[in-house]
Amino acid sequence: MRILLVEDDKPLSNALSSSLRAANYVVDCVHTGRDALSMLAAGQTDSVILDLGLPDMDGLEVLRNIRRKARDLPVIILTARDKITDKIVGLDAGADDYLPKPFDMDELFARLRVTQRRLGTATSAMVAIGDVALNTQTLELTVSNEPVVLPRRELMLLQVLMENGGRIQPKQKLESRLYEWGEEVSSNTIEVHIHHLRKKLPENFIKTIRGVGYSIPVNNGA
Ligand code: CA
């Protein structure tokens, strides 16, 4: 899942983004409302973590702007102002969730997992298709009950495909969920990851839809 992190407190933004990346999220960081809106216009964001106190505009204004354009884009708001009124105003303006600062990373992760499930077809943190089971909380993967360790991007790719089991994932969409703004991506990157993944998974687990992308059929091996 690709997250847009809008937070002007740079030490907090750095700490948050490295924790999120360590948990296999793709994170684009911006520090102003204006940059948030232009990043959102690119249309590659799956979910937003939005600080309400921004230097150039009120975070609520950013939120209302998001809601006018992308009604269903999940938004979690962060604010040091932990007064109940801010929470109500934020939720009324269309936030899906609210975390008062200081917050616990585990709590943020739990809320992000809920968001991620809402975007996909999986219904719990444990996603199992055929003989392949992925715990999206611990990132532990088993194939035929044997633990398998994958490199970061391969695991991220497999997670996107499994969480959207039965749905075709276009190649460009997979790229945008694996790589951040400004990262170099060569045109065959996804093919290369898929090639490596297939060697570690049951035969025909990942289906190629020629010229479009990939999908994992949900009745796979079951
Ligand atoms: Ca702030």
What does this structure look like?
The chain has 222 residues and is an alpha/beta fold. 40% of the residues lie in helices and 21% in strands. The protein has helices at 10-22, 33-41, 59-69, 84-92, 105-119, 152-163, 171-178, 189-200; strands spanning 2-6, 26-30, 47-51, 75-79, 97-100, 126-129, 132-135, 140-143, 146-148, 169-170, 207-209, 213-215. Helix 2 (33-41) runs parallel beside helix 3 and helix 6 packs across helix 8 (189-200). The structure holds calcium ion. The site of calcium ion has 4 residues, from loops.
Given helix and strand content, the structural type is alpha/beta
Helix content: 40-55%
Q: How would the global form be characterised?
A: elongated
Query: What is the number of beta strands?
Result: 12
Contiguous uncertain segments of 5+ residues = none
How is the secondary structure organized here?
Elements: E1 2-6, H1 10-22, E2 26-30, H2 33-41, E3 47-51, H3 59-69, E4 75-79, H4 84-92, E5 97-100, H5 105-119, E6 126-129, E7 132-135, E8 140-143, E9 146-148, H6 152-163, E10 169-170, H7 171-178, H8 189-200, E11 207-209, E12 213-215
Parallel strand pairs: 1-2, 1-3, 3-4, 4-5
Antiparallel strand pairs: 6-7, 7-8, 8-9, 10-12, 11-12
Helix pairs in contact: 2-3, 6-8
The chain binds calcium ion.
Calcium ion binds at residues 8-9, 51, 53.
Short description:
The protein has eight helices and twelve strands. The protein has 222 residues and is an alpha/beta fold.
List keywords for this structure.
binds calcium ion, elongated, 40% helix, 222 residues
